[in-house]
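note to self — DONT lose this again. spent like an hour looking for the file last time. sequence + predicted structure for the chain T wanted, 116 res
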Amino acid sequence: MITAPAYTPNATAIKAKLFRGFSDLSRLLILEALRDGPLTVGTIVEKTGLTRTNVSNHLRCLSDCDLVISASQGRYTFYRLSDPRVATLLGLADQLLADVARGVYECTRYGEKEEK
């Protein structure tokens, strides 16, 4: 595991990369579904409304980033959050949004390219 002191450019860049993983709607739907516990691809498809191919591709990405792990049980592979802090982070986002949702929703700056 790579660790870096907080507030260094490298640590901040890694943190930005982590949050990019959470910023994709499909990946976030999958992570939210997995908050309730381990699920198969089929169950994730049912819960999220995403296609099986989309779910599989995003699970691979989330696994590569160590946010999700899998375990085979008989004919099935179950996916789960790799660390309870992922669920905690999602819960903290819910709490923060309870106070700032309107501002985030109305924000016109997100999605625009930043000027340098």
